Each structure stands twice: as structure tokens, then as C-alpha cells.
Amino acid sequence: NSDGCGHTVLGPESGTLTSINYPQTYPNSTVCEWEIRVKSGQRVQLKFGDFDIEDSDACHFNYLRVYNGIGPTRTEIGKYCGLGFQMDSLIESKSNEVTVQFMSGTHLSGRGFLASYSTTDKSDLITCLDNASHFSEPEFNKYCPAGCVIPFVDISGTIPHGYSDSSSLCMAGVHAGVVSNILGGQINVVISKGIPYYEHSLANNVTSKAGRLSTSLFTFKTSGCYGTLGMESGVIPDSQITASSSLEWPDQTGQANIWTPERARLKRPGPPWAAFSTDGYQWLQIDLNKEKRITGIITTGSTIAEYYYYISAYRILYSDDAQKWTVYREPGVDQDKVFQGNTEYYQEVRNNFIPPIIARFVRVNPLKWHQKIAMKVELLGCQFSIGKTIKNASVTVKHWNISNDFSLQTDKTTSTPEIKNTTVTPTVTKDVALAAVLVPVLVMVFTTLILILVCAWHWRNRKKKAEGTYDLPYWDRAGWWKGMKQFLPAKSAEHEETPVRYSNSEVSHLRPREVPTILQTESAEYAQPLVGGIVGTLHQRSTFKPEEGKEASYADVDPYNSPVQEVYHAYAEPLPVTGPEYATPIIMDMSGHPTAPLGVSSISTFKATGNQAPPIVGICNKLLARTDSSSSAHALYDTPKGMPGPGSSVELVYQVPQSMPHFTGS
């Protein structure tokens, strides 16, 4: 009451009130008094979102006073003033009635105040000025009072993308369709990382602004009943969409154009539904085939620039049998709910029903329009389960009076995105909760088993590598040993063996038929070379004595001869590896035979005296082959290189070749 009252919404359980001109300086000499009543048996709590009343006169002429009760019997709770006064605690009444009085005298500054109230059972009450940045929790529940759609509070964003953290929580809740501006209600807020850009839209008579990057954003958890009901998708057949009339006229070619009801599908290309008459008794009816839980509606105009038609305000009626219709009203309000429509022909506008409508038939009754009544529409909601929701009590109307006396934002609008069922349902079944726990656990278990198997396989391979590597076969061929010794690890001296090699030039002067028969052995089988021109060895010692007395050539077939190659081959039968091996000594008793021409008078042996280091690859001493044609019983032995010549009395010794550098025989 009086002239000092500002924005005021007094609901049955909550509300909001401000001083006049808030948040600007309040005028001098004003007074306002609010009388608040809630249900009997309940009490009232009052919370200030902002308080800035000048206190230069010690609260004599500028103050806010709160009383228990209404009328002459009221008693004072407190008197408050002060610039930037912080009042964090709630003011509680002792009854279900409270009087709030604001008085201003002469002053220079002060914004006044903004306060919200609710019943005391709403312990998490916030004001219309609170935003997400005031709270540190990643998720929280708060109670928004009624009346938070106020012109001096801004929001940025829309659903389902979210709202900037600087947006008013309660005003964003109204825009999202979570709470009603007339009733207020509980909100469940989830904080997440911000996005680079926030869209703007018009919904529930609230226009959100476009915004830029913010540190965080917030969204709301709801029942999740915001899916489309079949106008756009075609689930609702054409036969279930009817209207009071349809616009029809001939085009330039003389062909009839009819904007029939089935054209009223949202996002469908082409013209919309349009009424033939332009009065308040036109309607568009949608049959959902069975009762549904209807939570909202999205509308557009004609969507054709040449036909700038749209509906700026409308009412909603619903029925179970299409005979008895009910006009939608908000609880506790004695007037029909008038919904904000479009302000131009193309962009979408959303309105939500709080509480939702439970019905099969829905009618849209236009109240205001531009040029002609034309629209496209989609209904939002979900399936209705009987027994879980009680239908809202409302007034049955057979005839109604058209009234244009309401305050709506019909001069501006922005685009509204399609509403998708992307919210999280706060209550889940036991099966869903169990699956939510078991699925991650099973995934972790299987992942762990796979990692263990992979690690075991790698460990096994590394263990095999550590036990030893597989080398190429070690054949008893000197050429292979020469080619590979620089790559293979060195072997100990006692196991290293040195095959005796003969150059081709030496072998060519030998006479194989004159070799003593005691040295003849059967020709051994030899493996083919592993690589052309190179033959490996079996790590066995080999030795032989070539035949004498034949001039060998490359064309001769000689088991002991081979073509001239860089690498020499060993041709004798391999001997067992038992350390350094020596040829078997040949001892002949010369006492009963004629003296040889060379005067050899002692026994010769092939083994040298003393301990010698194991031989390495070298060149054998040339053999001097001599034969007496008159006596085949007298055999002569070659004199080793480096020893005294014929006639020497020193014992003849055939030494195993000593360590010498390898060179090619001439």
C-alpha cells in the first residue's frame, strides 16, 4: 500500500518485494507497507538480498520496520537502516502474518532494499539477486521465491546448454521452466565449466541475453519430461490435427492455396496453419491419442517473410474427451494464464506449464496476433503413468470472454532453441543404480586382466632373450669361420680350432696315387655351402694329406681339389671335439730296409715335443715328394720347413702349423 512500494509479488508460500525505484535511489518522503499472510500454523521468514537505506538521522526518518502480525495488534520485531548494511541472518515471525513497513524522509543517497520471504520450512531460501558464483559447491539445492522475473536482473544462456555463472539463479530457473514466477519453487543446480558463447532466447516471458565466455556455467536437474510429443516428427497423424477454420485464397495462377491445420508442424518447410477468421474464437486442436503429461509448448509465426503473420498471446485449453474444456490456470490464481507468444514471424518462443497438464486433447486459443492468425507448434512432455500424478484442479469453461488486459513482452523476442530431453532424472530405479555401479567395476576388472596377460607375455619373451640367442650353425668350413669371426663373439683358446689349409698351387703339384695307402680314407660327404663362395664349419678339426705325383688342373676330377676361391675348404672327415687333436704318429722300423738316398737314419713322428699353443690358421710346409722307381718298399718322408736338410742326424718332426697370418697360397 501507499506510494513507496516497488516491485511486489506476494505468493501463498513465498514472494519478493522492493522499495520504489530500486536499484536506483528511492525518492524523499515516501512510505509503503506490505501485509504478508501464509497458511495458518506456519511462520514467515524474511531475507534481504540488498539493503542500502541512509542512516544520517539515526533511523528516525529513513528506515525499514518489521512487525509480527497485521493491524493494531501487531508487535515490532526490528527497525533497520544503514548504507550497505549486511544482514545475513533471517528475520522470523512468531505467527503466519507479518507486516513490513518502509519509510523515507529527506536523504541524499541510498538504493533502498530487495527482500524475499517464504515459510520457515524452506530452510534453503535465496533471493532473486543470488547467482551461481555465490556458491562453491559443484551441486546444490535452493529454494527460489516467487516474483524473481524483474527487469533489473539479467541472465545469459538457455537450456540445454546452460547459463552463465553471473546469471540470477531464480530468474534462470523461470526461463528454463523449472520454477514458476508466480509460485517459486525448488531448484537443483549443477555447476560445470563455462563455454565460449551463450545463446539468447525468449521463454516463459523472460528474455535471456547473449553472453561471452565465463569461468563456469550452471544447469538444472529436472524430471526429464521435456521430449517432443510428435508434431514435428509426424507421430501425430494429420487426421488428429484440426482447427476452427483454415485460410484459403487463389494465387496468381488461379490455383487455390489452403493453409490447413496439418501445416502447423514445427520446423516443417512451407506455409503454416492460418485461420480464415480473425477473432478470439479461433483455435488449433491437437489429439495426442491418449493422455500425456504435457510440460510445455513451442510456437513460431508463419516462417515466410512474404507473410508476416504471428500470434503474440494465447491461452491453452485441455480436455479428455474434446467436449468439456478447461482453461489452464496457475494454482492459487483466479485468472486464466495468458502465455507470451511471438513478436515476429520466424523465431521460436517456449512456454512451460507449471504444474504440467494431464490430458489427451489440447487447444491453442489465440488472443493477440499480427495481421492474421498463423502459427506452427510443438508440444513438450512425456508419457503419463496413472496413479503417479494427480491432475490439477482447474476451472471448467464452456464460454469465455476475450480480454486483452494483460502485461506481456510483445515488442521484442529472440530465438529459442529446440528443447531436448537432456536433463538428468534425480530419482532412479534400483536396477539402474546397480548397473551404474557394476558396469564400471566389470570394465576395470577386465582391463586389469588384459594388462596382466600382456605383461606376462612380454616378460616371457624377455626371459627367453636373456637365456641366450640363436646363432648360425657352426660348420667345419674355414671360409665361413673367416667371414663370420668378426661378427661372432670370440671363443676361448682351448676350444678354438684351426683347420689346415692347402693352396691350390700346392695341391696341383701333388701326385695323389703316390700317397701312402695308410693315409687313404673314404671320401666324406660334404654339405653344400650355405652362401655362395662361403662354407661354414661345424667347429670340428679337419686334416688330410693330399696325393702326390700328379699335375692337377682345373679340369681334373680330384676329390681333394677345388676351384680357386678366396676362401678355402676343408675336405677331411670331421673329428670329434676333444680339445686340440693331432695326427696319429706313423712309426716304421727302418732297421731291416736299405738306407734311403737321403740318409735318414732315425724314426720320424708327426707330433712335436713339448707343450705348444693351439695352432691357428696357417700354411702347411711344402712336401717334397720323391719316389725310387727301382724299389717301392723304401718310403721317404718330407723334411719339415725350417729344419736341417738331408743328412742331418736330428729327428725329423712334422709340426702342426703355428700361428701365422692367413694368406692365399701361390
TrEMBL record:
Domain LCCL per the UniProt entry, residue ranges: 122-218
Record InterPro entries: CUB_dom, FA58C, Galactose-bd-like_sf, LCCL, LCCL_sf, Neuropilin_MCO_CoagFactor, Sperma_CUB_dom_sf
Domain F5/8 type C: 225-382
SUPFAM superfamilies to which the protein is assigned, alphabetical: Galactose-binding domain-like (SSF49785), LCCL domain (SSF69848), Spermadhesin, CUB domain (SSF49854)
GO molecular function, one term: signaling receptor activity
Disulfide bond among keywords: yes
Chain coiled-coil ranges: none
GO cellular component: plasma membrane
S-S bonds: 5-32
Location of this chain's protein in the cell: Membrane
Membrane topology: Single-pass type I membrane protein
Domain CUB: 5-120
Membrane-crossing segments per the record: 432-457
Keyword Transmembrane attributed: yes
Annotated keywords: Disulfide bond, Membrane, Phosphoprotein, Transmembrane, Transmembrane helix
GO process terms (BP): wound healing
Protein name: Discoidin, CUB and LCCL domain containing 2
Protein species of origin: Chelydra serpentina
